[in-house]
């Protein structure tokens, strides 16, 4: 929490923001953030590290479903908020087809464990289609840049990187539209000068190593070489 105040000091004084601190496995805590007063929830926990056994997306989906079941059991008239679940364009066959033939096997292997986690999370959420309203937000590559404009698409991924701020704006647009239920939607950049993410080459390189030699990550972590 201290590091967040240091990075964004204005949040501490903003009375429109409530911050809940705790574990993603704390169902009561998660339920308290998804009550009747909530119209939409952005589920954006993610990682770029291709670690075998990663469960961030799965555990998030499981906890959210459990929390909403808890709220529904308490009140039969409870209407769950619309869920916007951050996923990846690489899980959407139509969007994945947009990738160049050379890049496709490279990206899918460099992020194989991350995509497996997201895939299980999506499948889990789809089991509750009869009573939940979920949109899978499936952007392409993301970068730290200023907001430069975005557009939504259900069949194409961005040809360039997309800034996190444009992704956020796109998710707000999806939430306010009231549409795209149980669809995969990509947030694409409309500007041609979005900054290249300098961390991407190293992330892809590490991801390929962790894909072909997953044991090496845990060895490096034990030795303190990676965190």
What is the topological layout?
Layout: H1 2-7, H2 27-32, E1 40-43, H3 56-74, E2 82-86, H4 93-96, H5 103-110, H6 112-126, E3 134-137, E4 142-143, E5 150-153, E6 162-163, H7 164-177, E7 184-189, H8 200-212, H9 214-222
Parallel strand pairs: 1-2, 2-3, 3-7, 4-6
Antiparallel strand pairs: 5-7
Keywords for this structure?
227 residues, alpha/beta, 7 strands, globular
Over all CA atoms, what is the radius of gyration?
18 Å
**Total helix count?**
9
Subunit organisation of the chains: single chain
Q: What order do the helices and strands follow?
A: HHEHEHHHEEEEHEHH
| Sequence stretches where pLDDT stays below 50 over 5 or more residues | none
**Alpha-beta classification:** alpha/beta
Give the integer mean of the pLDDT values.
93
Taking strands numbered 1, 2, ... along the chain, how are they ordered across the largest sheet? 1-2-3-7-5
Largest sheet: 5 strands, mixed
Termini gap: 20 Å
Helix content: 40-55%
Q: Based on Cα principal axes, name the global outline.
A: globular
The total strand number stands at 7
Beta-strand proportion: 5-15%
